[in-house]
Amino acid sequence: MKLQGTKLILIAGLLVYIPLACKKTEFTTKPQISFKKISNTTLSTTNPVVFFEIKFTDKEGDVQDTLWVQKISKVCPNSPGVQFTSKNKVPDFTPISNVEGVLEIGFAYNANIGNYPTISGCGNKTDTATFKFWLRDKAKNVSDTLVSPPIILLK
């Protein structure tokens, strides 16, 4: 798999960490991630931005390492620049036990919008892509892989 230098924007206010009085079983040494929200599943020239809100929990609160994102194209799986795997630094914050927060990640489809990284489709073909996410903490514990529903990239 090819690693590209694609950068992601981790939106301001990205880490909302709250020590919760939840069951201890919800917080594990291995970071846990799940989708809180996906803004839309069809991207076009009139609706070019997708946001993923990813909820995380971690027992030790040391998730300030890396968020990995992989985009996989179903229509053009071998096209350069269409697929990528990116390594993204999670911002530092003071670790607390039983931390919970949300990472917001956005992409712009074939558009230059603010600081969002641009993702490409298959030229003049409608594409379907999935995004995979996994989180590594400072102790090198890695979450399970979270896979998005199909995202349609209209030509």
CATH level 3 topology: Immunoglobulin-like
Overall spatial form: elongated
| Helix fraction by DSSP (H/I, runs of at least 4) | under 10%
Q: Supply the number of structural domains.
A: 1
CATH architecture: Sandwich
Biggest sheet, open or closed, and with what strands and sense? 6 strands, mixed
The CATH top-level class label: Mainly Beta
Q: Please tally the β strands and state the result.
A: 11
The percent range for strand residues is: 35-45%
What is the H/E order? Answer: EEEEEEEEEEE
Our Rg estimate from Cα atoms comes to 16 Å
What is the end-to-end distance?
Answer: 25 Å
Number of helices: 0
| Mean pLDDT, all residues | 84
Unreliable stretches: 1-25
Which secondary-structure class do the elements indicate? mainly beta
Compact overview of the structure:
The protein is about 0% helix and about 40% strand.
Q: Can you describe what's shown?
A:
The chain has 155 residues and is mainly β. The protein has one domain (9-153): Immunoglobulin-like (Sandwich). Helices cover 0% and strands 41% of the residues. The chain has no helices and 11 strands. It has strands spanning 9-10, 32-38, 42-43, 49-58, 66-73, 84-89, 99-109, 118-119, 127-136, 146-147, 151-153. The strands form 2 sheets. Strands 3, 5, 6, 9, 10 and 11 form a 6-stranded mixed β-sheet that branches. It is elongated.
